[in-house]
Design a protein that fits this description.
Six copies of one chain form a homohexamer. Chain A is of the alpha/beta class. The first copy, chain A, has eight helices and six strands.
């Protein structure tokens, strides 16, 4: 029997980001578990930094997912969860958003959670989304890095490469949202076939 | 290198329940991933059905966890999350409660969630806990089976054996809380060593 | 001095709906006030009934608004407020969503409010949006007509033609969301130039 | 056919404030729309600055409204919305409070809103009222001018004369509550007769 | 040393209600504790059943309290807590509202609380007040008796005479709001002088 | 007829704390009212400063209450309300927690409330508990003394001895939680027998 697939979609067209995601998710690629596949959204912007960037990838993500017959679950790997609702509408297979999964996973680890945003301008959008999810009550706050998406992907990999050093330095759990989402996807896929 | 361990603790002393948990979690036992180990709390009640049952296992769970040097993460496998806070206070290693993880995982799958309780009398307690977690806003409701914990464990296994048939019959995601928690534990453990 | 313009955009391509909107808004077309103009989104679907319909018009609405140099304010006349955030990002001129304005106006008239949805399937989406706006606390409930958008536009006009008879029959205020939004737009435009 | 009337009531007895309101609302006085009429509450205090001031005008406002047969809608033009509920109880015609309408209109313009209070001592009262309206979730904060009501009315007019300069200086929407309320009243009256 | 006084004010002018309150509060009249005194608001309506009734007693209550030099604390004995804020503004001595104290005391006894209203029409007003107090989260519901205030006071005394039989019949705590408020007043007065 | 008893339990084993409680509650010991009795939990820790301390006294408190046939009501006199739910499950007699009663009583006195914690580390626990009680909406904040429980009990008595000086210095009500709880217990007991 072939391994079921989890498709992790990078909605921006920066392959360096996709490569960073692939590196960050290796620990979940178990030989006897689902295969974790990565795909760059060809017609995505180079970085998703505005509401227009978000909206511009929603329908392309929907089409990608509807045209995919081989994946058992999908992860949209951008902290704005672009197209999440429209993708869910288009398939019976589970679709995970990394912002949603990141926050939910943080809530399983501590009393309150904070968010590191890439840019200041995204914070009101994130706050709106937290309200939409009904998950504001344990929010401690959000702080920006004031970097571009491309900057965060350069150097030695994605943000995920900073997770463990940060966790060690701070002494509190640090959640990488994509790792959180692929973990949930893995559990969902694995239990749906056993 | 030896595999890190996730210790799933059944806080009641009913070995049939522990066996059911073990059956339910097999799909997450990857050769190259953490080892999932199960333990019955020897001095737990036969079923945790009252607040007294919950309180009576809190400190035994804490002692079990403090005395364990070999596990990388813990899962308390009872939907009342007994002793969760006191266990977290006693260790730097992550401790997951299945109620918390079950609800959080449900929130990653659908707009609203419902809960199947074993007994009616537990529902006010669960509502209080949802308020404590700040997670009431997307609750659709909770309904009781009006069974004993022992009854739910008899027959062909734990509740988890009903998950997939229920999901197929209802056409909506059905989350098994222990599966949700061990999934989160697996991700946490796996990413903390890579 | 020429009159400033309020552009009311019907995001679906059903001209009968646009005509109904035009009829419904006549009372706000004061000779000495802003001109209320109506436009059908040429590449919109015939009715906006799904999340895909919503997403598919977001960027076209943004482009329409960015390409418009003659309007002082915009109203997106669809109860899902498609593209509202992305349109606001694209212009300094005010953009009103009829769902947002409808609910806010209802809150100025009564202790609680209810919503008449066209279809049952839209209700979870509306609930999500109410949470996003932080406006759930005084919601009494929502009930569906179980009609298509096209059906609601046929006959003697849009839904707005039923507003006064409903209000008379029920003895409580009945708000037409587009009337609410254009009212707010009119005030905004009128006070910004005096 | 005579024009319907919107009666804007200044609940304090300071005619300078009433005059300022009249100036501020001129842009909504359309020849083919409702007539906007202004009235000073003769037995109101010179400024409404305390809870006692608020309570003292509630019943006089009710009597004024009950004794008025010629207005189609009423606006109570004081940011404490004195007597709003009791006035609504006394008439089937719509009664608008400027605090309620101001906040609701702000919510149609931005992600969060702030409030400029005249005096520090009013802020706890305003917070209590925001809770009552269920509208606290998007509040950014409130700051006092630490002036008397009379001081705010002196000089070149009411606060409303500062709205546009403030808006230009800050680059964000600035809402004048009375303008917001009369706008809503205008829409309500206009649509109720067409 | 003379005993400090707690003044319980019946804001309606029905002496039968005041007498019922006096009967209901006897158990708190300890020889070595504060004296509990009762007063009927002479110019109150015969029953407080509308918003107008509530507003009409606010300033009379304020004047009564400001003119009273002999009481250490006040209780406003009407479930609408008329004039509570304005009375608090007028004195440094504590003023208790029976609705507020009734709900708060109920929250010390059970997971959720319900309210028995005298009339259906009061329920929206009570809901508004619960929101204002920030105390809706544990509300189970409210049901009306559909009686007049006068009817509830006739027969063998006030509602308080039904408290114990109801409690026995229902097997859950039943709180009389005036008893709750005078209890809190007694503690406050007693601790302020020792 | 003998006086009914209110049993105030100090869950820590520090007799100095119990003595301080006894001093603080003297004003409620009315000859014709319930007798207020104090008991030190023999097997409690010297101070309750951690979650483990809290959990360790829950079942001992339950057993103490179940084994007590002579008290009409119980007060658990520790600001973490240890064992409150499990004690309530074990008896039909009312059980009061001082944190719950303290916050509820504060809400009857002012618009917002603050909390003085003994130690910083307790604050997240208190926040969690406030969420559980649904009582966060009017919280102004919490500040720690950074003392041990033993330190707060040394000198001239418990914290309660500072209540009046603090109240005088601050000009706002200062609530002692144990006084608040025993007051509520007194009212409950007194009205249940009359």
């Amino acid at each position: 029997m072939s391994r079921p697939r989890i498709l992790v979609i990078n909605p921006n067209s920066n392959h360096e980001v996709t490569q960073g995601l692939e590196d960050a998710l290796k620990p979940l690629d178990f030989a006897s578990g689902p295969e974790v596949i990565f795909q760059t959204l060809a017609d995505g912007p180079f970085g998703i930094e505005s509401q227009a960037d978000i909206e511009s990838v929603a329908m392309p993500l929907r089409r990608l997912i509807e045209g995919d017959n081989s994946s058992a679950a999908f992860v949209i790997a951008c902290y704005s969860d672009p197209g999440l609702q429209v993708c869910r509408e288009g398939t019976d297979r589970p679709v995970f958003g990394i912002a949603e999964c990141g926050v939910l996973t943080a809530l399983a680890r501590a009393e309150t959670f904070g968010v590191i945003a890439i840019a200041q301008r995204s914070i009101p959008r994130h706050m709106r989304y937290l309200r939409q999810m009904g998950l504001t009550e344990r929010l401690a706050g959000e702080r920006p890095l004031n970097m571009s998406v491309a900057e965060t992907a350069s150097g030695e990999g994605t943000l995920a490469s900073h997770r463990r050093p940060l966790e060690d330095a701070l002494g509190i759990p640090v959640i990488d949202p994509t790792q959180a989402a692929v973990t949930m996807a893995l559990g969902t896929v694995q239990f749906s076939r056993h």
